[in-house]
Design brief:
The chain has 15 helices and 28 strands. The strands form 8 sheets. Strands 7-6-18-19-20-17-21 form a 7-stranded mixed beta sheet. The chain has a 6-stranded mixed beta sheet with strand order 11-3-2-15-24-23. A 3-stranded antiparallel beta sheet has the order 4-10-5. Helix 1 packs parallel to helix 6 and helix 1 runs parallel beside helix 8. The radius of gyration is 23 Å and the shape is globular. This is Tryptophan halogenase.
C-alpha cells in the first residue's frame, strides 16, 4: 500500500529547491508546498550555465512566461560550450545544434555525407552551424523578421544566469503560486530508521507527507538516512571562482573552456558580469598554487576576491528513500564541464512531480523505484559523456596523464569501438539498439562521436575506405553554410536586444 501525499516540505531555498517546489505545485494542484531556509542569507552573485533543455523546463513544464523571465532575469543566451583550448586541440565547439551539422539520415548517399563531415566539415571555420555562428559573430538568438510579425528566436540555445536575479525571480514566482517561503533553519531531524518523522527549526517544528532535501552538499536530511553513494572516477574536487563587471557589448554567448595545469578554467558571461572559475584536482595542486595559476590566467581578478569551493562527484543510488527525496547537490553532482547540473536537477524535479501526478499523488515502492531508476540513468549518462573528455585529453602534466586513465563505462567503450569500426551512424545506438527506444536522456551516440573527433579521434572505417564527394553536394553544402552565416549576421547582439529589441518580443 502507498501513502497519499498532501503536503511537501522542501529544505533549502536555492535554485534546486525552488524549482522543485514550483514543479511539484504546478503539476499537482491542491498540493500544499512550503520551502524552509534562512532567506536572510545573501544570494551568491555568480554566473550559472545551463544545458539546452532548460528552456523547455522553465517555459513549458513550469509555465514561466518567457518575456517576463527575460525582463526580470536578463539572461545571456548560450549557444555552445566553446573549447578554446583543450589540451592543445584546435579550438572547437560543442554546439546545441550539433546534430544539424550531420546529414539527414533520410537522404541518399548518407555514408558519403558522413565522410564529408568527418574529413572536412567537422572542424572547418567556414562550415559552422547556426549556434557556432552565433558565438563566432557574438550574437543572440533573436532577429527581426517582419514577415513573421516581428522578433523571432532560434530555439537551440540555453541560458547563462545571474544567480541573484534568477533566485530572486523564483522566490517571487513561488509566492505568487501560493508556495510558502518559511524563513527558518532546520537544526534537528527526527527519524525512525530511514523515515523522516519531523524537522525542528530554530522557530518551530515541521511535519509533512513528503520531504525534499535541497540543502546542497550539507545534505541535512539525506545525511540522516542510510543511502549508498556511487562515487565517480573523477579526480577534480575543488573550484575557484571570481567575477568582474563587463559591458553587454563584451558578452560571449558560450561557456568558454581553457585547460589548466591540474584541471580547466571556465568563463560564463551574464548581462553585467564575467564569471570565471578554475576546476582543479587538489591531489595534484595546492589551493594556493591553483589560486596563483587562476589569477595569472584571468585578467582583472584580484587574489583576495577568489572564493574556493570543495565538492565530490557522484550520486546516492536511491534519490527517493521512504518519505524523503534528495534533489540538487544533496542528491549528487557531476563536475560542471558540460553545465548539466541545474538543468538535470530541474528535469529530475519535473519528473518527480509528473510521477506523483500520474499516480494520484500516491507514493508506492514501485513509484519510488521508477523515479530512482530515472535519476540513476541520468547521472550515468552525464558521467559517460564527461568522462570521454578526459579519455582523449592530451595534456602533459601529471594530472592530465592520470585523467586519461579514468574508468570508462562498458557503454562508452562500446561507443568508441563502434566509431572506430563503423564511423558515424544516426540510426543505431550500439549499446541500446534503435535510437528511438529508451535513448539516453542527454547525450546520444552522435554527440560522443562528434566530441571525440574534435579531440583528434579517427575512425578506421573512414581511413580505410575511399569516398567521393560530388561537386553538386559540395555546392549545396557551401550554399547552406553561407546562408547560415548571412542569417546570423542579421541577428541582434545582446546589447541591441536589451537596449531596444526587447520591446518587440
Amino acid at each position: 500500500m502507498g501513502e497519499r501525499i498532501e503536503d511537501v516540505t522542501v529544505v533549502g531555498g536555492g535554485d534546486s529547491g525552488l524549482l522543485a517546489a514550483l514543479a511539484l505545485q504546478r503539476t499537482n494542484p491542491g498540493l500544499d508546498v512550503s520551502v524552509v531556509d534562512d532567506f536572510d542569507r545573501p544570494i551568491p552573485q555568480v554566473g550559472k550555465s545551463t544545458f539546452l533543455a532548460i528552456q523547455q523546463i522553465l517555459h513549458d513544464s513550469l509555465g514561466i512566461d518567457e518575456q517576463r523571465f527575460v525582463e526580470a532575469v536578463q539572461p545571456v543566451w548560450k549557444a555552445s560550450v566553446y573549447f578554446r583550448d583543450w589540451c592543445g586541440c584546435d579550438p572547437f565547439h560543442y554546439p546545441f545544434d550539433q546534430r544539424r551539422k550531420f546529414p539527414n539520415p533520410e537522404e541518399r548517399d548518407t555514408g558519403e555525407a558522413y565522410y564529408f563531415y568527418y574529413a572536412e566539415l567537422a572542424d572547418s571555420d567556414d562550415h559552422l552551424s547556426k549556434c557556432e555562428q552565433l558565438v563566432a559573430q557574438g550574437k543572440s538568438p533573436w532577429s527581426f523578421e517582419p514577415r513573421e510579425g516581428g522578433a523571432r528566436k532560434y530555439e537551440n540555445v540555453a541560458y547563462h544566469l545571474d544567480t541573484e536575479r534568477f533566485n530572486g525571480f523564483l522566490r517571487e514566482l513561488c509566492l505568487e503560486r501560493d508556495i510558502s517561503l518559511v524563513d527558518d533553519e532546520v537544526v534537528t531531524v527526527d527519524t525512525a530508521g530511514d523515515r523522516i518523522r519531523r524537522l525542528r527549526g530554530r522557530d518551530r517544528a515541521y511535519e509533512a507527507d513528503l520531504y525534499v532535501d535541497a540543502s546542497g552538499f550539507s545534505r541535512v536530511l539525506r545525511g540522516e538516512q542510510d543511502a549508498a553513494f556511487r562515487e565517480f572516477d573523477l579526480p577534480l574536487d575543488a573550484a575557484l571562482n571570481a567575477r568582474s563587471e563587463i559591458d553587454l557589448s563584451e558578452v560571449v554567448p558560450a561557456t568558454v573552456i581553457d585547460t589548466g595545469e591540474a584541471g580547466w578554467f571556465w568563463q560564463i558571461d551574464t548581462s553585467d558580469s564575467r564569471d570565471r572559475g578554475y576546476v582543479y584536482a587538489s591531489e595534484y595542486v595546492s589551493e594556493s598554487e591553483a589560486r596563483a595559476e587562476f589569477v595569472d590566467h584571468c585578467e582583472g581578478i584580484d587574489a583576495e576576491d577568489v572564493v574556493n569551493y570543495e565538492f565530490s562527484s557522484g550520486y546516492h543510488d536511491r534519490a527517493w528513500i521512504e518519505n524523503c527525496v534528495a534533489v540538487g547537490n544533496a542528491e549528487g553532482f557531476v563536475e560542471p564541464l558540460q553545465s548539466t547540473g541545474l538543468t538535470a536537477n530541474a528535469k529530475a524535479s519535473v519528473t518527480l512531480a509528473t510521477l506523483l501526478s500520474g499516480h494520484g499523488r500516491v507514493a508506492t515502492d514501485a513509484v519510488r523505484e521508477r523515479y530512482n531508476a530515472w535519476v540513476e540513468r541520468t547521472w550515468e549518462s552525464i558521467y559517460d559523456f564527461v568522462s570521454v573528455h578526459y579519455a582523449f585529453a592530451d595534456g602533459e602534466t601529471a594530472f592530465w596523464e592520470s585523467a586519461r586513465g579514468l574508468d570508462l563505462s562498458p557503454r562508452v567503450e562500446l561507443l568508441l569501438e563502434d566509431f572506430d569500426r563503423n564511423g558515424f551512424d544516426a540510426h543505431v545506438d550500439p549499446t541500446m539498439g534503435h535510437s528511438d527506444v529508451d535513448e539516453p536522456l542527454f547525450f546520444q551516440p552522435l554527440d560522443f562521436y562528434a566530441l571525440i573527433h574534435n579531440m583528434g579521434a579517427t575512425s578506421e572505417f573512414y581511413e580505410a575506405h575511399d569516398f567521393e564527394i560530388d561537386d553538386e553536394t559540395r555546392r549545396a553544402v557551401e550554399r547552406n553554410y553561407g546562408s547560415i552565416r548571412d542569417d546570423v549576421a542579421d541577428h541582434y547582439d545582446h546589447r541591441e536586444f536589451y537596449h531596444g529589441a526587447l520591446g518587440q518580443h
